[in-house]
Amino acid sequence: MIENDYLSVYPEETRSLIAEYxxxxxxxHDRMARERIFWDFHRITGKDLLHAETSAFEAxxxxxxxxxxxxxxxxxxxxxFQRVIxxxxxxxxxxxxxxxxxxxxxxxxxxxxxxxxxxxxEIHFKDIPSLKEMDDIIGYLRSRKDFQTLAAILLAxxxxxxxxxxTELKKSDILxxxxxxTYITIKSEQPVRISEDVASILDTCLAETPDGxxxxxxxxxxxxxAALQKRIRCACINxxxxxxxxxxxxxxxxxxxxGAGADSVRLCDDMRYRNRAHIKRLxxxxxxxxxxxxYVNIEIKDPPNR
Length: 306
Fold this sequence. Notes:
Radius of gyration: 21 Å
CATH topology of the largest domain: hpI Integrase, Chain A
CATH class of the largest domain: Mainly Alpha
Oligomer: single chain
Largest sheet: 3 strands, antiparallel
Strand content: under 5%
């Protein structure tokens, strides 16, 4: 855990559990964002997350609602704060069942009684790249020999990696098993086997990455998520397609996998999604692999095996 002022408001047992919870989050940026949310909860309620009563959670949700009503916070941000608090409570409940000594014996998940209602999320076909656009962006990046940006897009589309997982990748995370297969290790997860075409692009990137260095770098330092997303959007615009994020390419990969017959429940588990509703929405936008035969840059692959 990275020590900072955010968690200093909590006692040692709470900090220890927060550290255990954050171990499953690969991105340093995402970990610190969650620490700030935990600090915000204490700042507003004056309560320890492990000992807060229902009234404290209700007061915090009320504060989030007020911020949204006053225009000081977007609804999506308030919902993210709410999800993080709820996810931590669910984690602590699991640890309680395991007998974790840091969990107070009287702890209960009291976040369920106070929630901001989440509006139904709509995903439209225009929000994810079409097969032609996928073909165009891959062809454009190959012609420009921009293999770093190409690798990022393929990791999102074909391997279903999150932006934070991509920016955290180091040269030492790429492994070969001696039988021609390439794997990527993600913190606290089983190694992920990647397809040959993605591996060949990564090999090109690895040749330019110093030992111990980050694969996706900027001026020798690890690239930030915002900088990588900007690079992706600029590449899309220059390729003459819509302005897409890495999440858009990941959503397209999920839809393509479902269209190829992948099981939605397994996809959800493989992608570490707690809420299966997002996968269900994407399943209504299937990109069938048989449709890919007219495009030269997209290989027909089995559903991603993660």
